[in-house]
Amino acid sequence: MNQAEVCRYLDEHGISYEKMEHRAVYNMEEAEALRLPHPEWDAKNLFVRDDKKQFYALITVKGDKRVDLKAFRKAQGLRNLSLASEEELMGYMRLSPGTVSPLGLLNDPAHRVHFYIDAELAEGGIAVHPNENTATLWLRTADLIHFLREYGTEVRVVKI
Questions:
Q1: What are residue 139's phi and psi, to 5 degrees?
Q2: What is the mean pLDDT of the chain?
Q3: 3-state class percentages of the chain: helix first, strand second, coil last, to nearest 5
Q4: Residue of 116, 14, 103, 125 whose CA lies nearest to 60
């Protein structure tokens, strides 16, 4: 789904959100420079895979949080993890680097990508790209989790 399709999907499912268009951003530093509203809702996303290329996951945490993949995989009982390639990102979520978002899970109808969201983000709201990095959407995290689960995505709220 592109930005228009994501917004239409949210509208059709009664999910309220705030949207702001801006210049393209590719990382947290560039996003911070925009001085967007609701900085407390900033989130960053890591698309990872295991060492056998059989398990793929999206990990979403607060924007200023560092993710220790070794500690994460141990806590979740997973194999060794590393960042997935650009090709894998495109193949699994139809996204390119800089556009990674939990909303990209809507591009995974086979539900091959597991979604882990930090418990720290579970209350309140979250800022996400609508599968394009020229806009940001702010929505309630509970709404995001609910509609992704309804879509069939495995969502795990964990302490990271």
A1: -145, 165
A2: 91
A3: 35, 25, 40
A4: 116
b/e burial code for range 84-107 (CB count within 10 A of at least 16 → b):
beeebbeebbebeeebbbbbbbbb
Closest Cα partner for 116 from 128, 106, 102, 130?
A: 102
Strand blocks (E) in the chain:
17-21, 43-50, 56-62, 81-83, 113-118, 125-128, 135-140, 155-158
The residue written with tokens 């705030």 in the block is: 18
Instruction: Give the tens place of pLDDT for each residue, 97-144.
Output: 889 999 999 999 999 999 999 999 988 999 999 998 889 999 999 999
As to burial, measured by CB atoms within 10 angstroms (0-12 exposed, 13-18 middle, 19+ buried), residue 151 is: middle
